[in-house]
Amino acid sequence: xxxxxxxxxxxxxxxxxxxxxxxxxxxxxxxxxxxxxxxxxxxxxxxxxxxxxxxxxxxxxxxxxxxxxxxxxxxxxxxxxxxxxxxxxxxxxxxxxxxxxxxxxxxxxxxxxxxxxxx
Length: 119
Description:
Elements: H1 3-30, H2 34-54, H3 58-75, H4 89-106
Helix pairs in contact: 1-2, 1-3, 2-3, 2-4, 3-4
């Protein structure tokens, strides 16, 4: 993958990270516990898909960093009193589970392809 294609991939993965953060924030509370699992599955899919797409660890770090920033912004209360994350088990599992998924996907060992033989 060329350098320009990789940079474009990182930007697109960042946008996907923001979309997954917003969608997960809405879904996790609406359909508990299925929505929580769906939100976490979306996080894992974007983070691990970024690693597989780019072949680098930054492929998971880029969407995970944007995800964390978006989720933190969505979890803060506004002057009007609106917020997306209520106090409860589901939102905390989504916040911690998504962050852990980002760290796990970013630190997975990079194994060579199974068909690579040096003989």
